[in-house]
Amino acid sequence: MWGLPSSFLFRTVKSLSSSFSIAALSLRGPRRDRPSLRKTLPRWRKASYLVLLARGRANKGGKRGMLATGRRRAVAGGVVLLLILAALLYFFLTRGGSAAPTAPAHLQVYVGTVQVAPTSGNFSTATNGATLNEGDTVKTLAQSKAAINYSDGSLTRLDSDTRVQLKVIDHPGVSYNTQLAQTTGKSWNRVKALVGGSTFKTDGPNSSTAEARGTDYLFWILPDGTIKVDDFGGSVDFTFAGKTVHLTAGQFSQSAPGGPTTPAPIPAADLKDPFVLFNQAANANPGADQTAIGPDQFLSTGQSSSNQDGYLADGNSDLAFTLNWPGSTFGMTLVGPDGTEYPEQASSTPPYTLVANHALAGRWKYRIHDQISGDKEPWEMVIGHLTPSTGTPQVIFPPSPKKCEYTVLAGETEKHPYQAFSYSGKVSFSATTDLPSKILPDYATLKDNKDGTAEVTFAPPIGVHPSADIKVTVNGTLGGGTASSDCIEHVVAGTASSLGGSVTSGGSGVSGVTLVLTLPDASTTSSVTDSGGNYLFTGLGAGDYTDSLVVPNGYLATGPTSQTETLDGATAGTPLNFALNRFAVAVTSLPNGSVGDPFCSTLSLTGGVAPIAWSVSGGALPAGTSFDGYGHCSGTPVAAGTYNFTLTATDANGHRASQGYTVQILPAPDITVPGGLAISPLDTLRPWDTGFTNPQALAATGGIPPYSWSVAAGSLPNGMSVDPVSGTFSGAPSARQGTYSATIQLTDSVGAKAFRNVIFRIARAPSFQTSLQGNTVRGQPFSQALWFDGGVGPYTVTTSGLAPGLQATTSIEPGEGGPQPVVTVTGTPTTDGTYTPVFTVSDSVGGSVTWSGILLVYFPALSISVPAFPALAVGTPVTLQPTAAGGLGPKAWSASLPTGLSINAQSGQITGSPTQADCFQNMWVQVSDNSTSVYVPIALDVVPAGGAIMFCSTSGSLPSGDISLPYSQQVRAIGGAAPLQYSLSGQVPAGLAVSATDGTLSDAGFQTGQGSTWNFNVNATDGGNNPATKAVSLFVHTPPTLTGGPGPIPLAAGATGTSYQANLAWTSAGTPAAPITPVLESGALPDGLYLYDCSNGTPCLFGTPSVAGSFTFTLDVTDAFGAKLLVPVAYSLLITDTPMTFSDPGPNLPPSMVGDSRYGTGFFVSGGSQPFTWAQNGLPPGLSANFNGSDATISGTPTAAGTYTTTYRVTDSTGATASMAYTIVIDPTLSITTPALPSGDVNVNYSQPITATGGSGGYSF
Q1: Burial status of residue 148 (CB atoms within 10 A of its CB: 0-12, 13-18, 19 or more)
Q2: CB-based burial of residue 1214 (10 Å sphere; 0-12 exposed, 13-18 middle, 19+ buried)?
Q3: Spatial CB neighbours of 1092, under 8 Å, sequence gap ≥ 6
Q4: pLDDT 10s digits, 353-410
Q5: Are 360 and 336 in contact (CB under 8 A)?
Q6: Measured between alpha carbons, how far is 193 from 189 in angstroms, rounded to an integer?
Q7: Are residues 1155 and 1256 in the same domain?
């Protein structure tokens, strides 16, 4: 075998048919070296091949190069010989041997269902790309279209409801013979240019034939048998009935009884068919369908065609571009008349149609791009206009290659282009957002370039606040058609702001202090003060920031420790400063003393957290003096000298402050204080509770009174003072818990002084730390504790308002501040109700606190539960235990049970053996406690012994029925072997049936004429076919029939406000079964009148009418069986008005006096018909009238004396009126006119008149 070109491989392909197994030798290589010859042989046959490689298209010299590949390159002379040998070999293999095998065709399904049947076979659904062999028949169904692709590049398109058989497919490789047999429908045939010896023809009914002599023709069999042939290119011979016509491009022929018609222009109707294709005319008229056939070129992967002239659109239609090809993926680009290139649309499954909605008027072009074919492929374009669109133009945004999301920083500018297409013209743009305003923010703009493009610009200023994620929707619009494209713009606020300040103590900066800044997003950052106490945060955006101070050890904040500032992201914020007090001893020196004089000084601190503990941490105090843990000194020096010592204070957080002192004690002077002035007592004062008074006094001894008291050093606790005369400390301290001290000075009348350092202990105010929680149940144990805190013991507890059965006890337990009282409430409440317990705790120094609350004592409702009874039978023992819950006290049980069963009154257990068979429906079990009883109704079936059957009811009379009304009644049996089956026998009313499973008799409504007593049997048969029968009787009631006259029956007239009663009688055939229920069928009764059964079967009208008028209404009644009268009765009633009268006949209303605000009177109107309208005139000044329905009231404060006539007029709803005039007398204000009385003498008679004016006279003093 000769050598193969480099990169070529052998490949075996599938057999083409079951009758001829072949092996295919495929020589595959790069496209540029692909062999131009391929031969398929039987498996047993050997062959040698000469492979000719074509170098592609002609070279620059116009000659196509060839290369023969063997073991070595042949010389130029040998090339000619090889070409001759190749031609001979090719002729021998293709023409000289036996007939070449038939080449198959392939099916291309455009849309819908297509079926294929082999020779003498049945039709089955075919798939796209299926192989078609000679003899196969292809059939398209309704709404389906397909194509047959032949190996020479020809094809046959099949319209809906078309059937074609492939009679001959002889395509050996040189000449191509195709013959079709078409029996129905329409086919369009695109025939490749015929070479010598080739044929392509279609056989139709009645020996008709169309044979191509050019390229394209349509073969159409109409439903009536008419055959049409249209020629769209080259020439076609059409034979029918022995006559032949020769058609050329643009002509058509139609079969006739005598043969084909004379060639004529193709009718417009054919031009609109989707399968009609004809060559593009360079100057085609707008509106005419056209076809643009791909140029005679092949596209490889990645190649594109040049722009092709497509279609001259008229501007009033939709333009459809349909791309057909053998199976590769192509892209299609449209070029509008204005030069706009629309985005490439990628096709997938052929054919692919792109519709230019509302296509712009002018010449359209298109360009084809081979995307992934892998082989050189031909292509074809079909262009046609559609019916002028009644919709709106289509607007298209190209798909975004990535997620449309951008970020812009404050102070920067971000621009984003947009482009939208419409086949109708240039698109205009607008923009919306998801902001509340729906529009772009102030710093964003949309620029419409008026050429189908737009640009959105975001330029947020430095101070923009806050950051935001804005959804921007750009809308494209043209002629009512719209589309939109969404993008997210992340606007990041500026970060040019800063925030700083200082931390100082005593006017100096404190270094190393930490500040924590909380950002708007809740994250935090920190800064530390420098040596000057300053700090600074930078790079901050807009928003609210919280600056928090971390108080360092040894300091106490003297102001807020947290401050908030709003920044704009562009400028520095207002400085935030913080102040601290250092924990230090404020007194830096102590005064000198002398032997024998009391020596004391009160020390104070800055900073620190109470309580404070003092100690002597170095040196020694003057002999005879001492220093306690509260920072107070006491005692009298006994030895002169210089003393050095250090005092240290420790706060609650363990911080320490120390101060050193030097004190000089001088020798005792030779001067003695006259009288030995001193302050007593020397023991410590009792503590105070915060917020409570506890007066305590110091006493003076010696000296010369009077004395005066004052604070010489230190200060009293806040809220307290010392009386300068008595020396009593009073007031309710507001200071926090702790120990305080002050030096008290006593001065006598000659100026002598005495001093005393007084210690004040302040305890926490007493308070309750817990409370009684929730409710409790009567009769259940209860225990809860109230914890108390604060105050100074011992304590006293008082209690009131507890529920009966509960007691309160007090115990002393360890607490946070020492022993504390605990009030414990225990016991078992005996009486339910709502109680308000009150607890008061008083301590030893005057403090107290009270707690009160609500305690609900209730008891759970008594309930009972009875388990399901087992199957009961006569003589069978039963044991069952009901249970009870809730209630109060012991339980007592009782029951109503079948004979032979009993219940234990204490335990509630049911025992015994039933002695009587029956269906017991009204049994019950009851339990009772000290206050109530509850019961549960039960129904029990006790079946007979021995499996007998019995009916539950011993009575044979069934509840009565009524004509036309539904009926239902159960007749039940028990016993026997399950299941029981029911049936009826005897004289049964037509329509009455029985349920075979539960014995329920039912009838949808007894028929007219069935009113009577019916006697029949109800039968029950058990599973063992044992019967039981019960004889029953059923009375069917017939309702009465009205026999009165046709007109309304007049009733006696009535009057408004007057009691009224009338019997509503009628004549009827039959009497309703009492009692009856009157029913108002139509009309309305006068307000105030009602219907009722007044005489055991006779309806009555009763009441007091409140509205006058003429009334007509229709009445029916429902009797005891639920039946109504067959004809309702109509009545008429006249209600007249009662004349209106005033309740106060006059003529005078109560008098009054000027300035008397107590005036009030009223009257009302009876009779008439509401609503009423009132009119009034002439009331005294200061009085007013108010009206409410029939009532009138007068009230107010008269302001002018006189006699007044006031009139009233009332009109009712019928226009009737009534009037009344009243007189009201208003007297002047009552006053005493006598001036001041003259003086009198003791034991001398005195008389002096006193006069008065105003009022109504007849004064009494």
Answers
A1: buried
A2: middle
A3: 1078, 1099, 1100, 1102
A4: 778 888 888 888 888 877 765 555 556 666 766 655 667 888 888 876 556 888 888 8
A5: yes
A6: 12
A7: yes
* One domain for residues 295 and 190: no
| Domain count within the chain | 12
How far apart CA 220 and CA 216 sit, in angstroms, is 13
What's 788's domain CATH number?
2.60.40
Q: Are residues 643 and 681 in the same domain?
A: no
Domain-terminating residue out of 224, 243, 278:
278
The greatest distance separating any two alpha carbons of the chain, rounded to the nearest whole angstrom, comes to 185
b/e code 881-915 from CB counts within 10 Å (16+ = b): ebebeebbeebebebebbebbebeeeebebebebe
- pLDDT digits 0-9 by tens, 162-196: 999 999 998 877 788 999 999 999 998 888 877 77
- Reading the block at residue 1250, the tokens are 């006193």
Residue that finishes a domain, picked among 208, 243, 278: 278
Residue with tokens 């900066």: 509
Write out the residue range of the structural domain in which residue 172 sits.
102-278
Here the tokens at position 731 are 């007031």
- Return the CA Rg of the chain: 60
The three-class DSSP label of residue 140 is: strand
Tell me: do 480 and 438 sit in the same domain.
yes
Looking at residue 351, its pLDDT comes to 64
Q: Are 953 and 922 spatial neighbours (Cβ–Cβ below 8 Å)?
A: no
pLDDT digits (tens, 9 = 90+) for 679-697: 776 556 888 888 888 898 8
Phi, psi of 85 (to 5 degrees): -60, -40
Contacts of 987 (CB under 8 A, 6+ apart): 1014, 1015, 1016
pLDDT in tens, 627-652: 877 777 778 888 889 999 998 988 87
The residue among 1074, 1066, 1112 whose CA lies nearest residue 1093 is 1074
Q: In what order do the strands lie in the sheet with 796-800?
A: 796-800, 838-842, 848-852
pLDDT at 560: 92
The CATH code of the domain that includes 318 is 2.60.120.380
Is 772 within a domain? yes
Q: Is the pTM of this model over 0.90?
A: no
Residues 264, 116 share a domain: yes
Whether residue 506 is found in the same domain as residue 433: no
Q: What is the DSSP letter of 1046?
A: S
Q: Mean of the pLDDT values across residues 673-678?
A: 60
Half-sphere exposure of 100 toward its Cβ, with a 13 Å CA cutoff?
A: 21
Contact 829, 779 (CB under 8 A): yes
Q: Tens digit of pLDDT for each residue in 1141-1178?
A: 888 777 888 998 998 888 888 888 888 778 899 999 99
In a domain, 654, yes or no: yes
The closest alpha carbon to 192, from 149, 229, 221, belongs to 149
Position 993 scores a pLDDT of 93
The reply to whether 196 falls in a domain is yes
Question: Is residue 189 domain-shared with residue 207, that is, in the same domain?
Answer: yes
Please report, for residues 428, 941, 1131, the alpha-carbon distance to residue 1124 in angstroms, rounded to integers and kept in the order given. 76, 39, 17
Exposed / middle / buried, residue 1101 (Cβ in 10 Å: 0-12, 13-18, 19+): buried
Distance CA 896, CA 926 (A): 9
Angle, CA 884 vertex, CA 880 and CA 890 arms, to 5°: 115
Shared domain for 289 and 384, answered yes or no, is yes
Is 702 a member of any domain? yes
- Specify the CATH number for the domain of residue 1059: 2.60.40.10
State the DSSP string of 281-328: PTTPPTT--EEEPPPS--B-TT-BPPPEEEEEE-SSS-EEEEEE-SS-
d(CA 565, CA 575): 9
